[in-house]
Write a structure and sequence with these properties.
The protein folds into 2 domains: 71 residues, Orthogonal Bundle (Arc Repressor Mutant, subunit A); 34 residues, no CATH class. By secondary structure, it is mainly α. Helix 1 crosses helix 3 and helix 2 crosses helix 3. It starts with 12 loop residues before the first helix and ends in a 13-residue tail after the last helix. A hairpin with a 5-residue loop joins strand 2 and strand 3. It is elongated, with a radius of gyration of 19 Å. A 3-stranded antiparallel β-sheet has the order 1-3-2. It contains 6 helices and 3 strands, in the order H-E-H-H-E-E-H-H-H.
């Protein structure tokens, strides 16, 4: 499997890596149990930052497309083919888009949506049984 990254492209580099690994799994170019290069090795080969590869690997592991076995390395997950079809980011984006459209229809401004989203992400929103500031 050959991985190529377009550093000048519009698609984030970690996303390009994820897509290419999932495509390789789907096509059978890599199979369950196959070893992947270490983060450092792949970063050096692609001439990108280690953090870019680490982020892609983390997301692939979250999706059970790869599995890390400590110091033994990173391998294609036994259920990778089925799991590589799932696109959590796309699913999340669709649901967020639907909710944002509902808020806009109700008259909520973009600024209010951004502030509320940030508050929720940072745990600053009170639950119905909790008063603000508790």
């Amino acid at each position: 499997m050959e991985i190529t990254i377009d550093i000048d492209g519009d698609i984030p580099m970690f996303t390009q890596l994820i897509v290419q690994i999932k495509q390789a799994v789907q096509s059978g170019a890599i199979k369950p149990g196959d070893a992947l290069p270490s983060i450092r090795q792949l970063a050096a080969d692609l001439q990108v930052n280690n953090k870019t590869i680490a982020k892609a690997y983390r997301l692939l592991e979250r999706d059970a497309v790869i599995q890390t076995k400590g110091y033994r390395g990173t391998f294609i997950h036994p259920d990778a083919k089925a799991n590589s079809i799932v696109d959590l980011t796309g699913w999340m984006s669709r649901h967020l888009s639907e909710m944002i459209e509902k808020y806009k229809t109700a008259g909520v401004t973009d600024s209010e949506i951004r502030i509320a989203f940030g508050d929720v992400m940072n745990g600053r929103i009170a639950t119905p049984n909790q008063k603000q500031g508790e």
